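Marked as duplicate of an earlier ticket. Keeping the data here for the record.
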Amino acid sequence: MAESNGISGIPSISLRGLASSVMQPAKNESSTTHNTVQQPLQQENWNEPVSEEQVQKNWIRYARSIEDQNPRLYSMMYNQVPKLKNGSEVWLKLKNATQEVEIQQEKSAIFSFLKRELKNSHLVLKVEMEADDAKSQRVFTAADKLKMMIEKNPALMNLKQQFGLDLE
């Protein structure tokens, strides 16, 4: 690429030659088409047995790896730890549809990580929504609120009776 321009022996650089060498992909003998094609085939055959503890541990590891990039997903993954059923079904119980959308958007990245770390390409995600009893039991009056609170904590009834409290 360097050639002498004839003026006092100072070498010059041809920009045309430099541009063509930059535009050409570097040839690397170790990265052949054979290796690229071979790796996914090997991953599809992974079927190492996994435990629920391994799935949960790696689930949290992935969550921590995205904490700075996606804090909302991190928080959800950290608080909603999945269960393993039938050896390959990762069951995740979600609280609302927004969480489901968030998980579905990142599902491929999450499961690529889990499959690679656990060496099991048969892992699948199953999502179920938690039943929200609070929505079905709306409380409007003070008596309804007290009744609901007593259901959650029966000791409140003792306090009400002991102090002779009455609702207005």
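See parent ticket for discussion. The first helix runs from residue 15 to 23.
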